[in-house]
Every structure is written in C-alpha cells, then in structure tokens.
Sequence to fold (420 residues):
Amino acid sequence: MPFIEVPEKIQRMMEIMEASGHEVCAVGGCVRDSLLGRPIHDWDLCTSAQPGETEETFAQAGLETIPTGKKHGTVTVLWNKEPVEITTYRIDGAYTDSRRPDSVTFTRRLEEDLSRRDFTINAMACGRDGQVIDLFGGQRDLAEKRIRCVGDPRLRFEEDALRILRALRFAARLDFRLEEKTAEAVTEERGRLSLISPERIWSELCGLLSGGYAGAMVREFYPVLSAALGIEPGDRESWTAASEGFETPRPDDWSDWAFMTARFALLLWKGALSGGSGGGERARELCVALRTDKASRSRVSLLVEQAAEQLPQTTPQLRRRMADFGPEAVSQLIFLWEAGRVVTPEAAAWLRAQEKEILRRGDCIGIGQLAVGGKELQEAGISAGPQVGWILRGMLDAVMEETVPNEREALLQWAARKYQ
Fold:
C-alpha cells in the first residue's frame, strides 16, 4: 500500500478533529502530488464535521477560524498564522449554470464527497497515518498516466464545463493522456465552454499553455481550444504546425509570464489565426474577448503582429527592434521565429547571442542611454521645444546604426551638422 508523509501540523490538526469524534482526511491535489513526488503547495482537509462543529472544535483548541466559505462547508483554520482549509463532506445539487452547484448538502460519508469530484486522480484521500483512500482507481490512472472522469464524463462536464479545460491542463502539465470516454466527452461537450466566464477560460488556458506537454493537447484537441477562444476551428494543418512549435525549448532566464504569452502568441499566429491578415489586431480582439490583463493583451498582439514582419539581419537592425519593443519582447520574437520555422535553430541561436551581447556591452538602445540629453542640446544653442525630441531620436538612430559613437562631443558635432 502506498504511504504519504503527512506534515506534522496537518497531523496535529487531524488529531484535534479526531479527538472530538470527527472523521478527517487530506484530499485532492495534495494526495495526487504526493503520489507523483511533486511539490505540494496546499494541504486541504475534508471532514465529517459540520462547519459549525469544525469552528467549535478548533475554538476549544485555542485556534482562530475564518468562515471563508461556510455556506459551502469550508472553514479556514489559522495554524501559526498559516491558513488551512477544512471542508465538510458534501453532495452537490443541480448545476443549472454549468459551473457551480445551486446548492450543497452536507454528508457524513467520505465516499459521497469523493464521488462528486472531477477526475479520479483528484478523488483520492489519506488519513493521518498516510494510508491512501482510493475508491475510483486514481492510483492506477496515475501509474498509467491517464486523465479519467469520476463516473460519467458527460455528466461531469454538464455539471461544470470548466472541467473540459481542466482535463487538458492536467494532461499538459503531467504528460498524461485522456481516457477514451473522457476524451470523447471533452470534444462533444466543448460547446458548453460558451457558458463559462472569459476570465476563468483565460486562467485555464494560461495553465495549459505553460505545461511541458501542451503541444500534444493542441494537436489532439484543437476544436476544443477553438471553442474556448470562441472561433471556428480552421484547418488541422495550421494547428499541427502550432503544436510542433511547442517543442521549442523554453529559454532558461524567462519568467512564467514571458513563456506563457509567447506560447499563446504562437498558438494564435500559427494555429487559430493562421492564413488571415491583420493578425495583431485580431489577436488583440481575442484577448479583449478573453478579458486578459492589459500587459498580456498588449504583448500578445505585438508578438503576433511582428512575427510576420521582416527579420533583423544585422546587429544594428536587432538593436532597432530592441529599442522599439524592448529586450524581452525581442527575445520572445526570436522564440516565435524559431518555433514557427521562420529561422533555423542556428540562425535563432545567432540572434540570441547578439541580443545578449548587446545587453552585456550596454549598447545604446534608448534615448536615456545617450551621452547627450535635452539639457546639453539647449546649452549648445538649440531652443527648447519639439525639435529637441526630434534631435534625440535622430541621435539614437545614428548611434544604433553605428554612424556616430555614443560620445558627448561626437553627438553634439553631429547635431550641429544636421540641425543648423
């Protein structure tokens, strides 16, 4: 029998509940990730105790509780100021909005609680002794790298359509495949995604796109992703090309956000929006519809727009792109060009090396880096006004093109020649 090492504080909380005559166990993601040997961020507990009984039990133990979701059975306990959620076993009522149950009924039976959960790998629990409680074959599905719904997959997706994208996200992050009936239901029920708020869809897409095995999900379930984006699927070849680009390695120094937005831009450029004109504007419209954050919307539309533009062939041209869009966006563009097979891996490596060298040397790619500013120009006799900005921008162009060195006297002489 598998054994999970339960942290001491969680064991202590379980002891408090059990001493009061209540059943309690860890449940869901913490059990799944323990069995997979993955980092665990939160330990969630479920119990036979009613919410009020949970509050009373920990109040008697001298611990503070917060009724964070008491209506749905959840009470947060502060253990050394660290929050731990404890939720009463429950049975969900009808889901008329395909997202949340209209009502919940508390139960004393763990089996009834686990049977309402989405996937078998999330429907396992463990007691204080670390012994796994697996009523639906979750351990076998973990071993066989499979995402399978608890019970009838169509019913699970009718209850909560967001589970459709959750299935793909788990598969993308864990390198799992969807069990046959679950895969069929994901595709057949994809129309229900229109009932889900754009913010929730965007959140799930971000998790999916960041997964190490997202390419397989794009290739196999592009009609589902099209439904999530609210567009027609288009042709399989375009989505396959996008999925192949997902094999391009993530640069070591990238943030999660940079990686996610670059992959989303790739998905749109080569897959969802392939073959049409005005890609940048269409990408922006999709981001608006998904209600993405402003930074993601701006970056994704820029990347899709610039991915189709002429590539920099020289170091000065690369400096110009970095000046126009910033080093991070240019790094993402290089990634897109390689992922989209616009450049060879060797050419992409050259561009990356040049970009790093530009940054290492501190090459001038912004007006603020010029050896001359507006004050020096005015001291040299140039009147204040819009012309100062024009001259500075001209200086920056000249420095980036290497026609004048970024030195005070050389720049002032250049300005005198150009604007006398």
Summary: The mean pLDDT is 92. DSSP finds 21 helices and eleven strands in the chain.
